[in-house]
Specification:
- Chain A: Residues 164-282 form the 3-hydroxyisobutyrate dehydrogenase-like NAD-binding domain.
- Chain A: Keywords: NAD, NADP, Oxidoreductase, Stress response.
- Chain A: One of its GO terms (molecular function) is glyoxylate reductase (NADPH) activity.
- The structure holds two protein chains of two kinds.
- Chain A has helices at residues 10-21, 37-41, 50-56, 67-75, 98-110, 124-129, 140-153, 165-193, 198-207, 213-224, 233-249, 255-269, and strands at 2-6, 25-29, 45-46, 59-62, 89-92, 114-117, 120-121, 132-138, 154-159.
- Chain A is α/β, with parallel strands linked by helices.
- Chain A has two domains: 2-162, NAD(P)-binding Rossmann-like Domain (Rossmann fold), CATH 3.40.50.720; 168-285, N-(1-d-carboxylethyl)-l-norvaline Dehydrogenase, domain 2 (Orthogonal Bundle).
- Chain A is globular.
- Mean pLDDT of chain A is 95; it is low at 288-292.
- In chain B, the strands form three sheets. In chain B, strands 1, 2, 3, 4, 5, 6, 7, 8 and 9 form a nine-stranded mixed sheet that branches.
- In chain B, helix 4 (138-146) packs parallel to helix 5 (169-181), helix 8 (236-264) crosses helix 9 and helix 8 crosses helix 10 (284-294).
- Chain B is elongated, with a radius of gyration of 22 Å.
- Chains A and B meet through strand 9, helix 8, helix 9, helix 10 and helix 11 of A and strand 9, helix 8, helix 9 and helix 10 of B.
């Protein structure tokens, strides 16, 4: 099966690599073309522009960092729209708000193409291991055709209905995750300041009803102050912001998420935006007294 | 930036004192643990997740451990949601049990299984070698330990008192002082786990206090639980429990917001539960509670009022402490309001967790995280 792949960041690189390793023919594009080199070494071909990729491939997958990038890739000159036509499918796996997704969907289908949004749950390692959770919505027929690719990139995929539902589900999940990370950070700090060993807290948590892979994975690195990015904090904060906007549109009060968002904003203001989202721990961590 | 959230109802503990900062070291109330005492875990568990890289010895748990290994006479005070199944497990294991409960009738099921009964905590403590207590809140714990006909009147050197209730560190230390003044040993041992883990003997004990008593009662803890930790000085067990429950409560609140949002934007909350269970934030709690939350069924495993008690406790340290709002009057008020908001399954009970970071020169108020309690007019909240 031949697919195009737009966007070779943390996620896109791992996902397209998986497809290559499992026998897919992949044509890649990235705004910074040098990022394509490693994929080329593994057998990918390069498209000079998104339009070139789409013209070449029946199906094109996109994995971009945010709504602005997702829109740009579609609407700019030599973007996806310049290549899309009847018979082609565009699968946007970026995490965006439902409005952005709808806009893209309308433009694609207006030109005769079919569209599927398919944001994923999972970060760098699940992407590398093909263990993503795929939250698809849009054209059912395109979803069915994409399943072979989804089965490589992920461990489970859901079809959630009309365009917008995938985006919404992703935002809800990431909202819960962002709030949980904040609760976890506060717990670590509280334990530490109460004279308890944070490692013991991790051990206790892991035995009980709230044990989860995220705490298990991030807890030790947070204690060490190691925030090598698997999921950049700025993207997590983007997701909190989008989730809050969704809540705002629908009159859903979400003070916990709102407070978590503030913590992420604070972390960004501290210059931690490109670090892993677990760096939000630094916003509550041991206050360093001013030198006096 | 300041995000201040004041509850529109209920009483703020405005009299909560700001802890005077005189030193940068951790609060004297919770001294740091010597590292040799930090973790004595003997986890014995199946199932979810993997253990962190701790070199922890496993110990084969012998179900047929003979009753002679246990302290001879064991008392148990408090036959509530937790105390009843815990006592039940001890009886099934062959222990000699004497029970007491404020409402005597709650003791009947245990008596019918062979437990003895005494009419006051004092008498139970006097007639037993080790007495456990599982009470609902700090006030009850203090009352049972030190009140009229309280445990202290029945204790003497050679005996032990193990308080398994969840209380704040200050209460625990108060009880400890009174207990030890009698010459007896004291162990605080709050548990992580609610009704089902109690029934299944799968609790996690977070103990602190007299090490010798911990050693003596370990076989009993192993009957009632799947793992136990010894955390050092009295106060550390209470603190650990509160930290865990704080995280848990916040997670429940976050999850509730997610369920509510998903429903309001036209998604199926059951699908959200399933999606969450597939990913990095999959927890047993979400898997267990999610489906019934979606259907607004809230059978009591951990009454909301007790979760709120956790919030009312103040854990002091130099740079970070929290107030919380008294919940009972809130709940009553909201129960009234909730009658008319039937459609919303999840409602806010209160919103207050203030974090304050103090420094020597510049007081700064930062709300890093506001926690909200979501409940329903059914007034239960399962954990």
């Amino acid at each position: 099966m031949e697919v195009g792949f737009l966007g070779l960041g943390i996620m896109g690189k791992a996902m397209s690599m998986n497809l290559l390793k499992h026998g897919f023919k992949v044509t890649v594009w990235n705004r910074t073309l040098s990022k394509c080199d490693e994929l080329v070494e593994h057998g990918a071909t390069v498209g000079e522009t998104p339009a070139a990729v789409v013209k070449k491939c029946k199906y094109t997958i996109a994995m971009l960092s945010d709504p602005a990038a997702a829109l740009a890739v579609v609407f700019e000159k030599d973007g996806v729209l310049d290549g899309i036509c009847s018979g082609k499918g565009y699968i946007d796996m970026s995490t965006v708000d439902d409005e952005t997704s709808t806009k893209i969907s309308e433009a694609i289908t207006a030109k005769g193409g079919s569209f599927l949004e398919a944001p994923v749950s999972g970060s760098k390692k699940p992407a590398e291991d093909g263990q993503l959770v795929i939250l698809a919505a849009g054209e059912k027929a395109l979803y069915e055709e994409a399943i072979p690719a989804f089965d490589i990139m992920g461990k489970k995929s859901f079809f959630l209905g009309p365009v917008g539902n995938g985006a919404k589900m992703k935002l809800v999940v990431n909202m819960v995750m962002g709030s949980m990370m904040n609760a976890f950070s506060e717990g670590l700090e509280l334990a530490d300041k109460s004279g308890l060993d944070p490692q013991t807290l991790l051990a206790v948590l892991d035995l009980g009803a709230i044990s989860n892979p995220m705490f298990r994975l991030k807890g030790p690195t947070m204690i060490q102050g190691n925030y090598s990015p698997a999921f950049p904090l700025k993207h997590q904060q983007k997701d909190m912001r989008l989730a809050l906007a969704l809540g705002d549109e629908n009159a859903v009060p979400m003070p916990v998420a709102a407070a978590a968002n503030e913590a992420f904003k604070k972390a960004r203001s501290m210059g931690l935006g490109d670090k892993d989202f677990s760096a939000v721990y630094e916003t509550v961590r041991q206050f360093k007294p001013s030198s006096s | 930036m300041t995000l201040v959230c004041r509850p529109t109802y209920g009483k703020l503990l405005s009299s909560a004192p700001m802890l005077a900062i005189t030193s940068p070291s951790p609060s004297a109330l919770c001294p740091p643990l010597p590292s040799r005492l930090r973790l004595k875990a003997r986890p014995f568990r199946f199932g979810t997740g993997g253990l962190l890289a701790l070199s922890v010895p496993f110990r084969a748990f012998s179900v047929s451990a003979s009753a002679s290994e246990f302290p001879e006479r064991i008392g148990f005070l408090g036959m509530g949601i937790m105390g009843t199944p815990m006592t039940h497990n001890l009886i099934k294991a062959g222990c000699n049990i004497t029970v007491w409960n404020r409402t005597k009738s709650k003791c009947d099921p245990l008596i019918s299984l062979g437990a003895k009964y005494k009419a006051s905590p004092e008498e139970v403590a006097a007639s037993c070698d080790i007495t456990f207590a599982m009470l609902s809140d700090p006030e009850s714990a203090v009352e049972v330990a030190c009140g009229t006909h309280g445990v202290v009147n029945g204790l003497s050197p050679g005996k032990g008192y193990v308080d398994v209730s969840t209380v704040d560190g200050a209460t625990s230390k108060l009880i400890s002082e009174h207990i030890k003044a009698t010459g007896a040993l004291f162990l605080e041992a709050p548990v992580s786990g609610s009704k089902k883990p109690a029934e299944d003997g799968q609790l996690i004990f977070l103990t602190a206090g007299d090490k010798a008593l911990y050693e003596t009662v370990s076989p009993l803890l192993d009957i009632m639980g799947k793992s136990r930790f010894y955390l050092g000085d009295v106060g550390n067990g209470a603190a650990m429990k509160l930290v865990v429950n704080m995280i848990m409560g916040s997670m429940m609140a976050s999850f509730s917001e997610g369920l509510l949002l998903s429903k309001k934007v036209g998604l199926d909350p059951n699908v959200l539960v399933e999606v969450v269970s597939q990913g990095a934030i999959s927890t047993p709690m979400y898997k267990l509670k999610g489906p019934s939350m979606v259907q607004s069924r809230y059978p009591t495993a951990f009454p909301l009022k007790h979760q709120q008690k956790v919030r009312n406790s103040k854990v002091y340290h130099p740079f970070l402490f929290s107030w919380s709002v008294r919940k009972f009057d809130l709940l009553a008020q909201l129960e009234n309001d909730l009658q008319i908001i039937d459609e919303l399954h999840l409602l806010f009970l209160l919103a207050c967790l203030y974090s304050t970071r103090l420094c020597q020169t510049l007081p700064r108020l930062t709300n890093s995280f506001t926690s909200v309690w979501l409940g329903t007019h059914i007034e239960v909240y399962t954990l």
